[in-house]
């Protein structure tokens, strides 16, 4: 896993908007080595939904017979497999498992893999999500109220998965019955691909959007699919040097204008890594939102 791209990003220009502000404990911001150097927990099972090594899902199962409430989890890494894969989410997946929540942690081919980009990356994310329905009985999962959680580029994909019911009729990404998603929680996400493509200070760069979409924004960029018709929470770090805050506030404004219920939670003294580190104020807020969403 190569995270150098994340570590060399210039500071983003931040807007002062916050719907809800959370104060964490003071201390230095986390780096990627701070996260990935720690002991790694392990999933309970792995499911394949295709033949590529990255067409897999890790399943994290809590104690008990179930049916278990379930989170659909989507990793980030700039939609690029060489930067990150599903294992980047292992620590928060384990934390949710210990809280009695099952986690369906999906992987997908990034733009740097054969078959990745458009439409493959999106088809993979969709197939991985829809495989949850087929495996629900085997793992005793309750699919009646699925909460999707995505980090960074995975925040975009989590929101996109919730919006598939609104894909254009002629899109190769459209299917008849996508997995219903009841709530999305985006952690430092990039929902608006057109805005991201124009944001030269975003930590993924602008070239990756062309690789990801091949110019197809109508069925890949989340604002084009609004309203999603479900509640959405965005958790963002106040000092995130990878995702400019305006990419969150801009999306919130568009989603609210379309009639969606969206709340932005800005965590002070928080960068990008804290969003998926279990000991942080950012993850505590995200976890609170996840558990509350599952109870609805």
Second-tier CATH architecture: 3-Layer(aba) Sandwich
Tally of distinct domains = 1
- SS content category: alpha/beta
Helix content: 25-40%
CATH topology: Rossmann fold
Encode the helix/strand succession as letters. Answer: HEHEEEHEHEHEHHEHEH
**What is the strand arrangement across the widest sheet?**
1-9-8-7-6-4-5-3-2
Rg estimate, integer Å: 17 Å
Low-confidence residue ranges: 1-19
Our count of helices gives 9
Largest sheet: 9 strands, mixed
Outline the structure in words:
The chain is α/β, with parallel strands linked by helices and 296 residues long. The protein has one domain (4-295): Alpha/Beta hydrolase fold, catalytic domain (Rossmann fold), CATH 3.40.50. Helices cover 30% and strands 18% of the residues. It is built from 9 helices and 9 strands. It has a 9-stranded mixed sheet, sandwiched between helices. The radius of gyration is 17 Å and the shape is globular.
Please outline the helices and strands.
Elements: H1 4-7, E1 20-22, H2 32-36, E2 45-48, E3 56-60, E4 68-74, H3 90-98, E5 102-106, H4 120-139, E6 141-151, H5 153-162, E7 183-187, H6 193-197, H7 207-213, E8 231-237, H8 245-257, E9 262-267, H9 281-295
Parallel strand pairs: 1-9, 4-5, 4-6, 6-7, 7-8, 8-9
Antiparallel strand pairs: 2-3, 3-5
Keywords:
single chain, 296 residues, alpha/beta, Rossmann fold, nine-stranded mixed β-sheet, 18% strand, disordered N terminus
């Amino acid at each position: 896993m190569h995270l150098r791209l994340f570590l060399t990003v210039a500071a983003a220009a931040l807007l002062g908007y916050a719907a809800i502000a959370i104060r964490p404990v003071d201390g230095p911001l986390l780096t990627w080595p701070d996260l990935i150097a720690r002991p790694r927990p392990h999933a309970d099972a792995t499911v394949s939904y295709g033949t590529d090594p990255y067409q897999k899902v890790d399943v994290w199962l809590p104690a008990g017979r179930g049916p278990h409430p379930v989170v659909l989890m989507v990793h980030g890494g700039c939609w690029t497999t060489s930067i990150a894969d599903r294992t980047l989410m292992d620590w928060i997946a384990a934390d949710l498992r210990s809280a009695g929540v099952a986690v369906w942690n999906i992987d997908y081919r990034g733009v740097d893999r054969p078959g990745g980009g458009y439409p493959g990356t999106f088809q993979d994310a969709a197939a991985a999500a829809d495989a949850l329905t087929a495996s629900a009985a085997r793992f005793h999962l309750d699919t009646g109220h699925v909460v999707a959680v995505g980090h960074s580029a995975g925040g975009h994909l989590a929101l996109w998965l919730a919006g598939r019911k609104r894909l254009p009729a002629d899109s190769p990404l459209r299917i008849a019955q996508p997995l219903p998603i009841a709530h999305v929680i985006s952690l430092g996400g990039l929902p608006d691909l057109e805005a991201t493509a124009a944001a030269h200070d975003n930590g993924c760069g602008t070239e990756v959007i062309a690789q990801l979409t091949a110019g197809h924004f109508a069925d890949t960029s989340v604002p084009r699919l609004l309203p999603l018709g479900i509640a959405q929470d965005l958790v963002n770090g106040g000092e995130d040097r990878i995702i400019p805050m305006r990419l969150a506030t801009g999306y919130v404004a568009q989603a609210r204008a379309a009639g969606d219920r969206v709340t932005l939670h800005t965590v002070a003294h928080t960068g990008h890594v804290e969003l998926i580190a279990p000991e942080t104020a950012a993850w505590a807020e995200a976890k609170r939102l996840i558990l509350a969403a599952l109870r609805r």
